[in-house]
Amino acid sequence: MRRGRASRRGMLRGLLAAAFIVTSLAAPSRAAESHRLALQISDDDPVKMRAVLDVAANVSRHYSGQGEDVEIVVVAFNGGLDMLLEDRSPVKERLVNFLKSMPNVSFVACGNTLETLTAKEGKRPPLIEGISVTQVGVAMLMELAEKSWTIVRP
């Protein structure tokens, strides 16, 4: 009977050791993957625009502090596009600082919303330098979600 218990203990120890090794080997590959976050801004509310920037800064600091990579993209459409416009962004100064100091955070404007504003205003509103454009902001968010990005609307 004692021999059976000792044999089971030995087998259990072996299984635990194997599980530990497999977990240890798998952990670095998971840590090597970059975290990916897409933030949606679709409201022309300066409070929500500041919240988007706060979330981006906090998430970036969190993962950088852990020695991990994080890629963040802010996608603006509808009223949220004002955040990225040179002539009317209520968060322009802070956004420009992001573009200079946080290379892991990018900003994307919806081309459809830009076209709507162009037709309404008679000219295309200027974007803050460093902002990219996608044809359809919502479609970009969908595609990012399909690629396992986390989508958040603060």
Automatic annotation (TrEMBL):
Keyword hit for Transcription: no
Matching InterPro entries: DsrEFH-like (IPR027396)
Keyword Thylakoid: no
UniProt signal peptide: 1-26
Alphabetized UniProt keyword annotations: Signal
Protein's name in the database: Sulfur reduction protein DsrE
Taxonomic lineage of the native organism: Bacteria, Pseudomonadati, Pseudomonadota, Alphaproteobacteria, Hyphomicrobiales
